[in-house]
Amino acid sequence: MSNSMWLMLAVTNAPAVQADAMDQLLDMDLGQLMNTRITGSHIQQTNPLATGPITVIERASIARYGATSIEQLLQQLPISAGYAGNQSNAYWGVNGNASTHVNLRGLGINRTLVLLDGHRLANGGTGANAAVDLNAIPLALVERIEIYRDGASAIYGADAVAGVVNIITRQGLEGSEASLHYGQTSKNDGAEQAAQFSWGTKGEQGSLLVNLSHFTSDPINMADRAPCGLGEVAGELICVDSANTIGGRARLADGQRINFNQVVGGNGDFYEPYSASKHNFNANHYLNAINPIKRTSLSGKGEWQFNEQLHLSSTWIYTRRESAQMASPGTLGLNRPITIAVDHPTNPTGQNLVLERRRLLEAGSRTLYQDVDYVQGLIGLDGKMESGWRWQSGINWSRNTGVDGLANAANLDHVDATLDRTRCSNSPGAAIPCADYLGYGDITPAVLDYLMTETRDHGGNQMLGFSGSLNGELFALPAGYVQLATGIDLRREKAWRHPDPLVRNGVANTNRQEPAAGSYEAREAFIETNLPLLKAFTGVEALTLNAALRYSDYDLFGSTTNHKLGLNWQITPSLQIRTTHASAFRTPNIPELFAGEQKLNLITSDPCSNWSNLPASSPVYQNCQAAGVPAGYQQLVSSVLSTLGGNRDLKPEEATTRTLGLRWIPEIVPLEVTLEYYKIHIDKAIVAIDGSSRLAACYNSSNNSHPFCSSGNFTRNPLSGEINFLSTQWVNAAEEEQAGIDLGVSSQFDWNAWRVGLDWHTSYLDYYHVEPYLGAAHIDYTGKVTSGRGSYLKWRSLAQINLTRDRWTGSYSARYLGKGDALNADPANLGAQLPGITYHNAQLAYQANDYKLAFGINNLFDHRAPYVINWLDVNTDTMTYDVAGRRWYVALTFNW
Fold first, then answer.
1. 607 and 514 in one domain?
2. 8 A C-beta contact, residue 509 and residue 331
3. Phi/psi of residue 82, each to 5°?
4. Which residue of 50, 427, 643, 838 sits 20 to 30 Å from the alpha carbon of 148, by its own alpha carbon?
C-alpha cells in the first residue's frame, strides 16, 4: 500500500483494471499479497482490494510514527472510539489493569475480533478476560495490520460485529537487525525505552525468523499533569479533591457531619464541622497519569516448502508483561461501615457516630501490580492439488496466566478487632493493638503492622482451535470463474479467575470479587463464493456477487447461522460501487457468564446532589424529595461502590450490518477517493448500563416510575442519602444502533525531486443510540464523552503528508478530535462542552546502507487535554485525550 500510515481500501473484482494507475498509487509490493488469503475472505485472491473495506497499516508507517506498541497505532485510527484500555486509563479500567485493546466504532472491545495471521488468540489479562490483550504481540514481529471494517461473522464466526483486526507477522528477513528506541516527554518524565534483535535466514525451501524484544516505560505522576482534582464552584474551577479525608469524616447521631484533626501532632480529640474546601484530600500526588510497564517477548516464524504440493508454517510467541499502578492510600468506611459508640474510648463527641471515610495516609500509597505470561503457538499445513484447488489446515493454541495483587491494603477484620476493646490491648507488643482512627496521626506503627496486608489473585485464559479449508475455481461463466471456499473451525475456550481469599471474602479493603471459571466449545462450518455476473458491458466493467454462510454450534447456546451478501459493481475503470448486507453475532464471554459478584468503585454522577437547589417543578427535585434524600445532600465522592456480576442466562447478541461504498480513481491523476456509509444494528445486546445513566433515567422519570428506580438497581443510606448499593449486572436487554460515514483520500506523486504521499481519512458518526431494554427511551451517545466508556465524538480525522528525497524522509500528521458534550451534564457547567482539538506529529529520518536514524515529536504543540466535568483521572477523559503532552523520541536501526 502507500507509504502513509493509514490507507483505506474499497473493493473491486477487476484485478487488471487501472493496473498502471494502481502501481503509481500503491507502492507496496503487491506480489506479497497475491494468491493468498486477504482479511475478510477465505477465497484465495489475486486482488487485495476484492474482499471489502480494509484499512492497512504497513511496516514502514509503523516506523514513521515511532510507535512502541500495537495499541498506540490502532487507537489513532478515526474508526477507533470508546473504551479500549491503555497505560493512562488502566487505573479505572474494568477489563484487566494495564491490558490494551482495540475498539472499532466504539462498540466494545469484545465486538472487535483480533486475529494473528488469520487465526484467533486467547483473551488476555489477569484471568477471565473479555478480549485479546495487544501487549502479547511484539511490534517487531508485525509486517502489517489489516483492519476489516465490516461485519464478518459469516467469515470468521463470533465477535466480528464491528470488524476484524488481522495482525500479519513478518517473514523473509535475511541476516540480522537490531534497533533501539528512546523517548520521553518535554517535562522529562514518562521515558520509553525499547530494544529488539531479529535474526533471519531464508533459502529455496524455507525461512526462519527469530525476534527478541524488550520494552520499558517510566511513570508520569498525576500531580505533574493535574495538580489537583477540579470541580466547578460559583462558576469557577477550583480544587475539590476527595472527601475521603485523612482525619476522618463522620456523621453524628444528630445528623451533623464532622471531620477530625488533620494536623500532624495536633489534638487527637479535635473535631469540627466538615468543610470540603478545608478537609478534602488531594490524592493526585499518590496516583499516576501514565503507569509503568515492562514487556519482554521471544517470538519466531518458520516456513518449509516440502514440494509444490505441501507447505509447512509455524508461528510462536512468548511474552512476559510486568505492570503496576500506584493507588492512593486506602480508605476505611468505603467497603464496610464503621460504627463507633458514644462510650468508646476513642470517641470524644458524646454521640454515636458512623465513620464515613477515613483515609489511611499513615500507611502510604498502595500498589496494584500484574505479572502476566502469554504463550501462543500455531502449526499450519497447506498445499495445492493437481486440480489447482488449494487446502489449508492448522492447529492453534494460546494461553495466558496472570498474577495480580494489591500491596498495602487494610484487612477489615483486623480493623474491627482493633476497635473491639474486649480483644485488643494497648500493651506494648500486643497481638492485637488497639487503634484510634479519629484524627490523623493517631494510628500507631504497631496498628499499621497489624492492619496492612497484600493480596494476590490468580487467573488465566486458554484457547485451542483447529481449522481446515478448501478453495478453488468451480467452473467458468462468461464473466469469469466461479470461486468457492469451504471449511470447518473447531474451538474450545476456557478462562478462570481465583481472587485472594481476603478479596473473595470482602476482608481486604479493596473491591470484593468472587471466583469465575467456565468453558465452552464451538463447532463451525462455512461456505463462501464469488460469482461473476457481468463483464465488459456498457456501464459495467465487472459485476460480482460475493456470498458467505456459516453455521455455528455452541455447547452452551445452541446453533446459529450467519450470512453475508456483497455486490461489487465496477462501473468504469475508475469508478466502483460496493454494497453488503451481513448478519453477525457475539457469544457471551466467560466473565459475562460466570463471573461472581464483584464490587468496583466506578465514577458515577448522582442527580440528587444539590437537588434542593433545583426548581420545585423539576422532576429531579420532586423525585429526590419523594425518595427521602435529605435536603442539602451533596455527593462528596465522585465514585460509587457498584456491583457487577455474571449472568448464566445470557444468550448471544445478534447484529445486522449494512454498507454502501464508493471508490474512485481518476484516470489522469494519482488519486484514490473512498466514501462509505455503514449502519450496524445489534439486538439482545449484552450491556451493563453505567450507574450515571441508570440514576439519570430514574430521577428524570415521572414519579420515580422508571424501572431503574427499583430497589434491585440501587439503594440509599436513609440517614446520609449516599448511594450504598448500585447494580450494573450484565443483561440481554439492550438494542443498539449506530450509523456513520468513512471518507478516505490518498495520493502519491512526484514534486520536483521529492516523492510526496498524502492521506486524509475521516470518520463521521451520524448517530449511536442504546435502548437499555425494550420500550425504554434511547440513551444517545452521539457526540458524547462518557464517564467510563470513552467518547463518541461525531468527527474524528487523521491527515498525513510524507516527503522522500534520496536518503531523507519526513512525515507530518494531524489528528483531529471533534467537539463533544459530557454525557448527562448541564451544558451551562464548565467542562460540559468540550472543544475540538488537533494533535500534530512529525518525524525526520535518514536512511544509510546499513542503518536508519529517525527523530520525531508527537503532540508537537503540547496541547493539554480539556477539562471534562465527569472526569476520570487527570481532570479529563483519559480514554480520548492525550495526558502525557509533548513527547520526543529517537530510533536507530542497524541491519547486517
1. no
2. yes
3. 65, -160
4. 838
- Number of residues assigned to the chain: 896
- What pLDDT, on the 0 to 100 scale, is given for residue 767? 97
Set of cell numbers at residue 871: 472526569
Q: How far apart are CA 683 and CA 655, in angstroms?
A: 6
β-sheet bridge partners, residue 200: 175, 209
Is residue 674 located within the same domain as residue 706? Answer: no
Beta-carbon contacts of 820 under 8 Å, excluding residues fewer than 6 positions away, are 783, 784, 785, 791, 792, 793, 794, 833, 834
Distance of CA 866 to the CA centre of its chain: 21
> Chain-wide mean pLDDT for the chain?
89
325: nearest Cα among 296, 289, 359, 361:
289
- Residue 356 located in a structural domain: no
Helix 691-699 to helix 619-626 angle (10° resolution) is 100
- Identify the pLDDT of residue 209: 95
Alpha carbon 126 to its chain's center: 15
Which residues, 6+ apart, have CB-to-CB distance to 705 below 8 Å? none
Q: Spell out the SS3 assignment of 323-343.
A: EEEEECCCEECCCCCEEECCC
Which grid cell is 122? Answer: 486467547
pLDDT given at position 45: 66
Looking at residue 467, its pLDDT comes to 96
Q: What pLDDT is stored for residue 891 in this prediction?
A: 96
Q: What is the pLDDT of residue 95?
A: 43
785/733 Cα distance (integer angstroms): 23
Q: Are 565 and 549 within 8 A, CB to CB?
A: no
Claim to verify: residue 401 and residue 501 sit in the same structural domain:
yes
Run of H or E including 153: helix 153-156
Last residue of a domain, one of 673, 704, 720: 720
Q: Is residue 231 part of a domain?
A: no
Structure confidence at residue 412 (pLDDT): 95
pLDDT, tens digit, 9 for 90 and up, residues 704-726? 888 788 877 899 988 889 998 88
Task: Tell me: do 804 and 880 sit in the same domain.
Answer: yes
**What is the domain range of residue 609?**
600-641+691-720
Could you tell me if residue 272 is inside a domain?
A: no
Number of domains into which the chain is organized: 2
Q: How far, in Å, CA of 315 to CA of 209, rounded?
A: 9
Are residue 606 and residue 512 in the same domain, yes or no?
no
Same domain as 555, residue 469: yes
Q: Are residues 66 and 126 both part of a single domain?
A: yes
Helix (H, G, I), strand (E, B) or coil at 416: helix
CATH code for the domain in which residue 109 is found: 2.40.170.20
Give residue for cell 486509563: 89
Q: What angle do CA 416, 422, 426 make, to 5 degrees?
A: 85
Read off the pLDDT of residues 571-587 as tens digits, 9 standing for 90 and up: 999 999 999 999 999 99
Q: How many CA atoms lie within 13 A of 578 on its CB side?
A: 29
Distance separating alpha carbons of residues 130 and 136, to the nearest angstrom? 15
Are 555 and 611 part of one and the same domain?
no
DSSP 556: T
Give whole-number Cα distances, 834 to 456, 693, 871, in Å: 40, 20, 12
Residue 850 lies in a domain: yes
What Cα–Cα distance (Å) separates residue 475 from each residue in 13, 478, 484, 534, 548?
Answer: 17, 10, 10, 15, 18
Q: Are strands 784-785 and 639-644 parallel, antiparallel or unpaired?
A: unpaired
